Amino acid sequence: MALLGGIEAGGTKFVCAVGTGPDDLQAEIRIPTTMPQETISQVIDFFQQQIKQTGDLAAIGIGEFGPVDVCENSPKFGWFLNTPKPGWQQVDFVGTIKRELNIPVGFDTDVNAAALGEYQWGNGIGLGSLIYLTVGTGIGGGGVMGGRPIHGLLHPEMGHILNPHDLSVAPFVGACPCHQDCLEGLASGFAMEKRWQQKAASLPADHPAWALEAHYLATGLINFILTLSPERIILGGGVMEQPQLFPLIRSQVRERLNAYLEVPQIMADIDNYIVPPKLGSKAGIMGAFVLAQQTIKQNFGT
Ligand code: ADP
Ligand code: ZN
Question: Is residue 93 located within the same domain as residue 132?
């Protein structure tokens, strides 16, 4: 089986790995996201070393934080676009990796990659569609529809959807630098920290923060269910480490949909409809392996 490289390029760290799948992760490194030159040269060093040690890598897959250019015919394909991450705007990451390592590169958003990882090896096995939402420092969502990652004009930016927000009940104005009280602005780990003046992880399980968090996330999920009709929703990211969130979100989604969608997955089996990633924190890097596999197929037809 072809040896694959994977890169999960995140706003706080880049995870780089070599292997063939979830049961065969041969090397892994975490590189802090500092400035592009520094971080990217460490990524290149890691893979050059791996290529030396292992003989050959067949391809590398990359999942990148957004917004990124995913349009294959665009001159900026694989570039970081206008990200709020200082120093990372307009950086040609995919092109640099391709040129420096002289290797085929598959590429998508970090969350489309995580969705692909779950689709092939996790909680998406056997389905035709799913969405993957990460609730971490920010909120991002991607998905697979009809077996393919979701692309269109660009790629989904599910974290930035707008929500009903009654300031008289919830006076926190929101933390998104672009839209203030979009979903990410109200419900990301960063937003929770700003609102409650402490890390989300340190809020006790019975703190009112969690009911509000579940309310916002359920609002987002209802909108995604009604627009995309995914067969399963996978929720990952640091904030979802709170086990009390899943039952709160599931019951709100079911109640507020109000029996409008007469499907057993929601009416009778919502515990298996809104789920954590089976691959846990490895969903993204496994998705990068899937992107590498797809590139090999495209390039060599195997
Ligand atoms: P990132 O989004 O930065 O790639 P994570 O998915 O780990 O990384 O998300 C980090 C965010 O999740 C931070 O805002 C952090 O406060 C929050 N977080 C991490 N662990 C927990 C936890 N156990 N409970 C609640 N929030 C958490
Ligand atoms: Zn926003």
Answer: no
